[in-house]
Amino acid sequence: MAKEKRILLKFLYQRFPIVQWAPKYNTSNLTSDIIAGITVGLTVMPQSLAYATLGGLEPQYGLYSAFMGCFIYAIFGGCKDITIGPTALMALMTYQQIANRSVDYAVLLCFICGLVQLFMAVLNLGVLVDFISIPVTVGFTSATSVIIAASQLKGLFGLKYTSSGFIDTVSKTFQNIHNTRYPDLLLGIICIIILLLLRKLKEFKFYGNDEKPTKTQKYLSKFIWLFATSRNALVVIFSSLAAFLYETKGSGSPFLLTGNVKAGLPPFKLPPFETSFNNQTVEFSGMLSDLGASMILVPVISVLGNVAIAKAFASGQQIDATQELLTLSLCNIFGSFFSSMPVTGSFSRSAVNHASGVQTPLGGVFTGIMVLLALSFLTPYFSFIPKTSLAAVIICAVIFMIEYEVVKPMWRSNKKDLIPTFATFLLCLIVGVELGILIGVSINLIFLLYPSARPKCTVDILRSPTGNEYILITPGYSLYFPSIDFIKSNIAKQAFNSPHLPVVLDCRFVQNIDFTAAKGIANLIKEFSLRNQRILFLNPSEEFILVYRGVIHKDFQYISSNEELQNVLEDNGPSENDNLLTNGVTIELKEILSGNHENSDKK
User: Which of 208-217, 234-243, 311-320, 440-449 is the most confident on average?
Assistant: First the structure.
């Protein structure tokens, strides 16, 4: 019974992190979490409205996507700083799937994301994220930031057009530039300037780094920081107030406005498994076919972002990628029942949460409550928000995601990494983010697999102390089937050039070998045997020898030290010091297989 209790407690601690911190929760934690939750709430509300617009949805869908993840993460999340909700990247990928389609596609994509992530969590497939390297991630993140910023030019200039893709967006912007609404452009530029200034103001302090601040200086610095952190909300509020004053004067707003935002909480209902648009009804199978590869790419990219944020704010603690995967899956699954689009962790809001002094994931609950209150009471006022102010919010959020500063370190450390970086960046801009990241990952995998297919081989012609010459070939990688023909051709070439010299294959770097490679080596031994040229294997690992159980050749000759090598080279054939496999398995190999190998070749 005690054992079962320990297993249950271990499961609860691992899969329900709330049971770890809840018993130690106090009023000091509560105060910090409330302050952080409200601060993040002031950030998430204008961002959610902006990201919904970016995703091609009505503004209220951004708020629908912003609360459920906060509640789920408080129970299952393992990092106190992370806030789950709509992001610019998820909005962009959502837009590419619902363009000229029904909003039901966005909600279904959210549900499918959750299912795929849950499947990955059950099978512990979080490791797949590791195959997306930093160079690919940098190229992808930078490209999506440029695409998102470009997509907001329409709102910034007050233009009206439809477009798809980065190149088409830029082209349509220049084609319609003569239709620019100058009040929108002026307001947008002012909003961007204010946002950038307030972002810089956040770093201002009333005291030096070496000075001890007074209580007044501390409070002033905290106020300035809070004022700067709430910049998105402040810009949206004041621009909306300007539009509202124009409306009350009866002259009409000079700005393009967001329009009516549906009031009230979203209804709780099943995700849509069929939809109707353009006077057509699309069945579930048709919706899945339309979503295509995004059903895999969107959840994987969502996980990639969330785990990266968790590691950034882990403060040295171990991050359970499977738990983060499970939590994110539940956020998307439950969110889809409230008409949410796909969600993930937000780096900008997580940074605000961290800087606000959040103590536990409960801070997200207060953020979620603020969103619900906004849906209940503030939606009538959201209709006065100018689109250009939301465009300014998005542009100022994504321009700092363009990671140009990593190019110089990559150039200095490994220039080859720049290839997948720039390939991913350019392809995402030209052919789309899904195909771009797939090709980028493929290029990176080619670089990863190339050394196993073309391992470096060092060739030396050496002379033993007794005057015997031999060819020493040292592969710099384990032997697998893609490389065996390359290795064989290198060995055969060197042996052909010096047919009178024995060949020694130094296996010190060959820790692994598969059956195909072992079979290729066996054929190589036969070829050497037919022309009476010796081939010796120096320092093979036990695994190397064990693989030869299925492909043993009578002339396989291995030695364990340079001293033995010198002895063997002095003879024309195998000596008593040789480990020669004949008629199956020798005593030496039997001892290795039984685990009793203790340098028996020196018996």
Answer: 234-243
Strands (E), 264-338: 275-277, 280-282
- Non-local CB neighbours of 36 within 8 Å, separated by 6+ positions: 353, 356, 357, 358, 359, 363, 366
In 230-272, where does DSSP find H-type helix? 231-248
Per DSSP (E only), the strands in 143-279 are: 275-277
302 to each of 47, 71, 317, how far by Cα in Å? 18, 18, 22
Asked if pLDDT for residue 567 goes beyond 50, the answer is yes
Q: Which of 490, 552, 493, 494 is nearest to 523 (CA)?
A: 552
Which has the closest alpha carbon to 319: 113, 82, 136?
Answer: 82
Neighbours of 450 (CB within 10 A): 12
Average predicted confidence (pLDDT) for the chain: 85
Give the DSSP per-residue string, 356-425: TT--STTHHHHHHHHHHHHHHHTHHHHTT-BHHHHHHHHHHHHGGG--GGGHHHHHHH-GGGHHHHHHHH
Taking the C-alpha atoms of residue 106 and residue 330, their distance in angstroms, rounded to an integer, is 17
Is 602 a residue whose pLDDT tops 70?
no
CA separation for the pair 277, 270 (Å, rounded):
19
The per-residue pLDDT for 593 is: 37
Per the rule left: phi > 0, alpha: psi between -120 and 50, beta: everything else, 124 is: left
Q: Which two tokens stand for residue 334?
A: 């439950």
Choose from 1-15, 174-188, 191-205, 471-485 the range with maximum mean pLDDT: 174-188
Token duo for residue 198: 């307030």
Name 213's Cβ contacts closer than 8 Å, sequence gap at least 6: 205, 206, 207, 221
- The 10s digit of each residue's pLDDT in 556-565 is 778 888 888 8
Distances (CA, A) of 277 to 99, 105, 108, 283: 12, 11, 15, 12
Residue 251: what residue type? Answer: S
Question: Region 502-527: what's the mean pLDDT?
Answer: 84
Token pair of 595 as six digits = 């685990």
Binned at pLDDT 50, 70 and 90, residue 543 comes out as: confident
Residues 6 or more apart whose CB falls under 8 angstroms from that of 519 comprise 551
Angle at which helix 88-98 crosses helix 433-453, to 10 degrees, equals 110
Please give the Cα distance from 225 to 391 (Å, whole number). Answer: 23
DSSP letter at 245 equals H
Question: What is the distance in angstroms between the CA of the first residue and the CA of the last residue of the chain?
Answer: 54
Biggest CA-to-CA distance, the chain: 108
CA proximity to 522, closest of 493, 473, 557: 557
Q: Comparing C-alpha atoms, which of 467, 418, 462, 468 is closest to residue 444?
A: 418
Looking up tokens 């140009």 gives 404
Residues paired with residue 536 on neighbouring β-strands, in sequence order: 504
The DSSP bridge partners found for residue 304 are none
Confidence of residue 486 (pLDDT cuts 50, 70, 90): confident
8-state DSSP, 601: G
**For the ranges 190-204, 274-288, 442-456, which has the lowest average pLDDT?**
442-456
For residue 235, which amino acid is it? V
Which of 546, 533, 544 minimizes the C-alpha distance to 503? 533
Provide mean pLDDT across the span 470-499: 82
Q: Is 528 helix (H, G, I), strand (E, B) or coil?
A: helix
- For 378, list phi and psi in degrees, rounded to 5: -105, -10
